[in-house]
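Field: sequence (string)
Field: structure_tokens (string)

Example rows 1 and 2, in order.
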Amino acid sequence: MRKFQEELFYSLGKHERILLRAPTGSGKTFTLIVSLLKTLDSGIPVTGIYPSKALVYDQYESLKNTLLRMGFSNNGDHFIGKIKVDGINGLPQIEKDVKLRIVRLTADTKKEVFQSLENFFPNPSELLLVLTVPEYPYMYLSALGKSQYFSQLIEMVMKGERAINVSKAPFLNLLNDFSRFFNGYFFIDEFHLYNGIERSSLNVLIDMVEFYWRYTPTRHSIVFSSATPTSITVDKTITADTGKGNSMIRKRTKVVFHLVLGGKRSSTSDQNTSNYSLGNPQEALVNYITSMGQQPEKKTGIILDRVYYIAELCSKINWSDVALIWGLDQSYGKCVKKDVGRDSRVIVGNSAVSFGIDIPDLDLGFITSNDPETLIQRFGRFGRVNKGSVGGQTAEVHIFVEASKRVIDALQGANGKELTYEEFIQLINKMYQERIYDELDSLEFSRLREKVIFDTFLLVYNIANGELAYTTVNENWRDIDTRINIRPSSEDYFNVFAFRPGGIEGNICENPGKEDFFTLLRNFRYSSEGDCFQLSQPLKEYPYLLLDNLNGIEECKITTFQDFINKASHPNIVLVKNGIIKTRPRDIEALKYTYVIPITKKCIKWGNFSSMARYVASYAPALTICVGDLREYCSDPKALLLFV
């Protein structure tokens, strides 16, 4: 074990909240196996929580490969082997035959996998490791057809009721479902990446878990892993340092900064001084790659932000064996959609590959970013020391960045110099403005949703435990003081309040498939005739909702999309790049049964409301709202329509 892993071993079960500050590639995957060592006698599960399903699949592959190197054999998700740990600081030698099941729970997981977990109980002879995302309790309920019971309880909470005249059995089963996974160790990876709604989802999950732990005899721990500094109240902080010997994590790496000057690109590399007519760092990166002649020998990674640029790159690139890791379940051009892409020569992706994807010997990188945290994460994918790495081999990373005065000033003192990894991180922090947090978790509805979900969990706990739990539930109850109108549907309360990503899907014109509606709307041509998107025609769209005025809009309140449209003043969705100047929102099938929150300056404390509204609408299920005359670009939005 590395020193920080050994320290973690001793801290598990002793401290409830542990912050693990570990740089990319320092051995965080093995930390899950360290956690399993603590469960050899009790058999309680270990749950790894990740910010994306792509990272769930990647961590599974990392764990699988690690276990196989340790001598385990496997049959699907079931592993058999021997865990042997020589005495740690005087601790007696640990040697035990182990059966282990590793389960991946995402929106793509088959119902049969969820069903098989209904029979799980803590068992030292067969350990369980769950790899999932923060929304897994709600996915679990949906997959097993139990969401209507949870929806019924949410409705009770919203109406201020704490008793229900129905059979106790289904709600006792709900508590069993929760407790099945809450009773163990938790490992929350890339904690600093959670933002807005995702952070709100994680917060309420942690609240439920810690409440449940208070009334169990077993000591538990949550490990928050972060590659960058983060603010959270913890009982113990463990830092993994880089250095020589067993803790060394990085190869020697050459870094080339490509500075994008308006429509020109220049390079800090003296070997390449030619200029290109390019518009922004992502476009510069795509043109640089497609202008390269021969495919590089080194395993290569290319990380962009916008789906449009990935589509452009994949349609132009002439390289072979290119894996594609992005938010869509589609291959594109020369790029083949894969969950991980470890065996491919080239990996192309966006945020799905940025955070935690562990691909051995990825020694040539082309990346761009808008903030230092994301840039550090992306840089960390490359030049990592792995078993079997060639000694002395040098990695190379090309970073495409806008040539602002801040960037140029920071680079002037570093060009051509040798930097330690820590000095490089300091340089990046000087070059980039810190990451912007959208603060959507501060919305009235976000706070309401956290209360509702937590109180619903308390209600389950109360019903399952009867009078014994009544006092405990009362002491922890978070009174709801807001009323909202939900359609009289058996599951609409669940659909509105349960945290789950996506859910609003658009049709693809070329095949029967569906993908995230807003990703399609921002990056591909929309056909109003077929109410579908043409994947063969990528474009950079900046859609917005045009109103005559904001009269009739209930700010900050959740309502149905249809009710919003009925009250709005002449609403039209404007798609300038599509050539569709206006389209009637009520004609878009994907939006008909959604809920929305109109956000104005009254609802959220953004320093620059217009800028933040445009920023959130670039990645979230949201449309900026402009008022008045038609224009090509909604530069000064007066509101943001967030879809739930």
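Row 2 begins here:
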Amino acid sequence: MGEVAAVYKIMLDMEKKEHIKDILKEIGAREIQEEPIGFGITALKVIFILEDSSGNTEELEKKINKIEGINSVQVEGVSLV
């Protein structure tokens, strides 16, 4: 079975940004980029590499949503690696 790269756009509480980044790294984030939205708001674009099996992206999305300070999670794309 192969691997997929899943890209998520995460809106968050800016006061907890560094703490959230640390937790995302702990759960397997390969790359985290900050994306300015406007008016001082920044989103995180986060890339995870996952096994290509059914349900992995949904499980990860649930884990991300449970992190304190996360306002929303949106899948931007999933691609075979």
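free_text_note (row 2): Residues 3-80 form a domain with the Alpha-Beta Plaits fold (CATH 3.30.70.60).
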